[in-house]
Amino acid sequence: MHDTGRAAPAPRDTSRPFTVLGVHHVAIGGADKARLTNLWVNLLGLPVTERFRSEAENVDEDILIAGAGAGAVEIDLMQPLDPARKPDVTRPALNHIGLAVSDLDAAVAWLIAQGVRFADGGIRRGAGGARVAFIHPAASAQFPLSGEGVLIELVEAVHDARDERVRQPA
């Protein structure tokens, strides 16, 4: 741990209206997705279950699944469509972590009320079609709480969606 000399603000409200259900996915960025694919697909044996491209997010992404059933976790391999454009999905290489939450609307509203900063774009559809919102990696004067250097994606939990992805390879 890294002591910055400042104490984290105490939560203003402890009646949290949502539950973090588990890790939904881990997103890894690289300049050349083929190199990532060689490790994760060819050597480690994870299946590619979906592909996603977004000009707005500057991403070409393969979605893999590690494990099965309720314990399955997505591994998202990403490269930029245009390395000169932002966002740069290769920095940091561990691009973000996705957490499944029980109630996305309640989570976002409550966390904002606690002073958590969210990235621009609000609640929207993510790569797998689920509703998502991103906790910003940096705090601001208005929102003093953040991911402290880590982009955190909150993913609305959808029952059985992960099981279906495991059974439906791309």
TrEMBL record:
Q: Which GO terms describe its biological process?
A: L-methylmalonyl-CoA metabolic process
Q: Which SUPFAM superfamilies match?
A: Glyoxalase/Bleomycin resistance protein/Dihydroxybiphenyl dioxygenase
Q: Which InterPro entries match?
A: Glyas_Bleomycin-R_OHBP_Dase (IPR029068), MMCE/EMCE_epimerase (IPR051785), VOC_core (IPR037523)
Q: Which domain of life is it from?
A: Bacteria
Q: Which Pfam families match?
A: Glyoxalase_4
Sequence ranges assigned to domain VOC in this UniProt record: 22-157
Keyword annotations from UniProtKB, A to Z: Lyase, Metal-binding
Q: Name one GO molecular function term.
A: methylmalonyl-CoA epimerase activity
Q: Which residues form a coiled coil?
A: none
Query: What is the name attached to this protein's record?
Result: Lactoylglutathione lyase
Q: Which organism is it from?
A: Burkholderia singularis
